[in-house]
């Protein structure tokens, strides 16, 4: 049995904060400790209390003064776009056609896919992201590379091959039948193996014929526990083209409804230009809207209306994600910062307690995985991070005038990046410090 104590200032959310200073939404322990046993959090509490539950002579990882919280979760990103990051374009469709659909063709090469997957997982660890949901490329081999790299590090990862059979270069298209067969084979190979979750992944309505969306719907019916991920209402030209391709559906969300692709395991990236009907249909079906602020600002897609998608009764389910490589940073700290600014521009607020809740427990809830990840609660998988709000000289200077937890969190999200992540624990193992520079 492997056992260790990890000591520091513990912060873990138990609910969504209902106000800027809602201290009933989290547990904070100034001199706390986690008892980690066989990859699981066996106890969380004050150091003195938890120490009594550990074996004599137990290893103690001592981070006194530093903040320990659950690892960040990124519920929408594209694994084959690590080398699309920072590509100059005027709009979504131009960006996709000029760079993305060219780059993704390289993932037919399994050596290339394996190399990028290794870089991706290391970059997640460097940035304190312990779980993500990724769109892989159209090639089944890209899924093999992705889950192989995740399994090698014992990371809990979600992903699937994109299904796309039109409106893309021929080398990047499948067919309704091959996408069904390859997805099914991928599910049988990877889903539930170790910590892996396969996600049914029709890229978006433009790149799928009705026959392919039917195949995706058939898979969703056959495997009702699986997640589904796609894109929705990101850009106005995209929406106009989508409506031309599916004139009978009524609206964009209606397409996914028609093919049985909506529900509480369905994740819709962007959701920017939403009609009231689409928003209400998302509420009714418990579907998840995933906010990707650095991507939306970079590609110029628009501003996610958080208040509208959250709903008056807070019935809307929301995720917060990087959308690499439309997004400009793999860091969830940078993503929270940009999210705050997108809301500011609309006269809305995103208090730091809410953004840190969102990047941890909130995103775990968006993925329906809150029983496993997203908190430091006993019984959770031991995926957690250690943060330092004095990581750079200017952060250290600013910390001289920070006097409470909320201010510290806001400083971390406004000024922090991978340098503020001291350590990343995956299933109880400290992995960041093992990476090379
Ligand atoms: N819509 C369809 N594919 C993509 C993609 O790769 N990135 C973004 N941002 N939007 C998409
Ligand atoms: Zn995306």
UniProtKB/TrEMBL annotation:
GO terms for cellular component: cytosol. GO terms for molecular function: guanine deaminase activity; zinc ion binding. Gene3D superfamilies: Metal-dependent hydrolases, Urease, subunit C, domain 1. It comes from the Bacteria. It catalyses: guanine + H2O + H(+) = xanthine + NH4(+). Pathway: Purine metabolism; guanine degradation; xanthine from guanine: step 1/1. GO terms for biological process: guanine catabolic process. Its EC number is 3.5.4.3. Binds 1 zinc ion per subunit. It is an enzyme of class 3 (hydrolase). Pfam families: Amidohydro_1. Transmembrane segments: none annotated. Keywords: Hydrolase, Metal-binding, Zinc. Catalyzes the hydrolytic deamination of guanine, producing xanthine and ammonia. Belongs to the metallo-dependent hydrolases superfamily. ATZ/TRZ family. This is Guanine deaminase.
């Amino acid at each position: 049995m492997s056992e260790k104590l990890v000591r520091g200032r513990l912060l873990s959310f138990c609910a969504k904060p209902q106000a800027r200073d809602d201290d009933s939404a989290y547990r904070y322990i100034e001199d706390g400790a986690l008892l980690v046993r066989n990859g699981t959090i066996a106890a969380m509490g004050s150091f003195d209390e938890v120490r009594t539950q550990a074996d004599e002579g137990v290893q103690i990882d001592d981070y006194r003064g530093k903040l320990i919280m659950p690892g960040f979760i990124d519920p929408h990103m594209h694994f084959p776009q690590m080398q699309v990051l920072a590509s100059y374009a005027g709009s979504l469709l131009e960006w996709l056609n000029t760079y993305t659909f060219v780059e993704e063709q390289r993932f037919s090469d399994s050596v290339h896919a394996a190399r990028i997957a290794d870089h991706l997982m290391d970059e997640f660890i460097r940035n304190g992201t312990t779980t993500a949901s990724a769109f892989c490329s159209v090639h089944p081999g890209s899924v093999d590379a992705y889950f192989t790299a995740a399994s090698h590090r014992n990371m809990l990862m979600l992903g699937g091959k994109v299904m796309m059979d039109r409106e893309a270069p021929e080398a990047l298209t499948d067919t309704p039948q091959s996408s069904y067969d390859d997805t099914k084979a991928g599910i049988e190979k990877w889903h539930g193996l170790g910590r892996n979750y396969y996600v049914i992944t029709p890229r978006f309505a433009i790149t799928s014929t009705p026959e392919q969306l039917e195949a995706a719907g058939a898979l969703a019916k056959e495997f009702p526990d699986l997640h589904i991920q796609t894109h929705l209402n990101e850009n106005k030209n995209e929406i106009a083209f989508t409506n031309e391709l599916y004139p009978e559906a009524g609206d964009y969300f209606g397409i996914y409804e028609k093919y049985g692709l909506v529900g509480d395991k369905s994740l819709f990236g962007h959701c920017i230009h939403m009609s009231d009907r689409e928003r209400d249909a998302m509420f009714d079906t418990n579907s998840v809207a995933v906010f990707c602020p650095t991507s939306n600002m970079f590609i110029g897609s628009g501003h996610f209306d958080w208040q509208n998608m959250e709903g008056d009764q807070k019935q809307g389910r929301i995720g917060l994600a990087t959308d690499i490589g439309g997004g400009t940073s793999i860091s969830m700290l940078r993503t929270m910062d940009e999210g705050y600014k997108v809301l500011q521009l609309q006269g809305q607020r995103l208090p730091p307690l809410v953004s840190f809740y969102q990047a941890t427990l909130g995103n775990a809830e968006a993925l329906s995985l809150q029983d496993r990840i997203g908190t430091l609660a006993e019984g959770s998988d031991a995926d957690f991070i250690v943060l330092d709000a004095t990581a750079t000289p200017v952060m250290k200077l600013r910390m001289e005038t920070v006097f409470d937890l909320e201010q510290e969190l806001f400083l971390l999200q406004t000024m922090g990046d991978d340098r503020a992540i001291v350590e990343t624990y995956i299933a109880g193992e400290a992995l960041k410090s093992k990476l090379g520079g």
